[in-house]
Amino acid sequence: EAGVAQSPRYKIIEKRQSVAFWCNPISGHATLYWYQQILGQGPKLLIQFQNNGVVDDSQLPKDRFSAERLKGVDSTLKIQPAKLEDSAVYLCASSAGTGVAGGNKDTQYFGPGTRLTVL
Amino acid sequence: DQQVKQNSPSLSVQEGRISILNCDYTNSMFDYFLWYKKYPAEGPTFLISISSIKDKNEDGRFTVFLNKSAKHLSLHIVPSQPGDSAVYFCAAFTSGTYKYIFGTGTRLKVLA
Predict the structure, then answer these.
(1) A101 and chain B: CB distance < 8 Å anywhere?
(2) Distance of alpha carbon B50 from alpha carbon B48, whole angstroms
(3) C or N: which end of chain A has fewer Cβ atoms within 10 Å?
(4) Residue of chain B whose Cα is closest to the Cα of A49
């Protein structure tokens, strides 16, 4: 079974520039997540999709961040314009997402992440 | 408000000994807990999980213990191996939300 794919793996931009990240989840996984992981911290959820609908985007800075999941499969996360504090690893994860605790379907599987450096 | 806490940022253990990683939570609505392991330049990988209806789950060298009254869980690795050196995150989940809350991680170093 192929894992979660992300690209690019690394990106360096200057502040005020734009950047986009791409994620391809595990085939058949209904739920897709974007996390931001700042050095020394745990992953923080930015946005969560169930199929192509947004379930939770309460921690997404909507003035500069946007995300979409077309056709309920691939997803892109965009930052425009970037700030220095956006430097982080951006992780994409997917799960089968039954919402029922205790089942393997709730496990999130992560991609390798995109390391963003904003200069 | 940090709902899931890992108070030890780092831990060093001799090869062959037991590693114990701890995690505390504040939200009593959490009903499913997981541990993830993360190597540098890779995404977190799922290690082991436990439902709130259990107090122990074992998978090979890895055992997770849950104490609901104390809102505490721990991961035991026995025996520890150098390849276990990584950052370990605990995560908590509430049924129906699909939303995980992660701790800040503990860096484990297993010394040969």
Answers:
(1) yes
(2) 7
(3) N
(4) B98
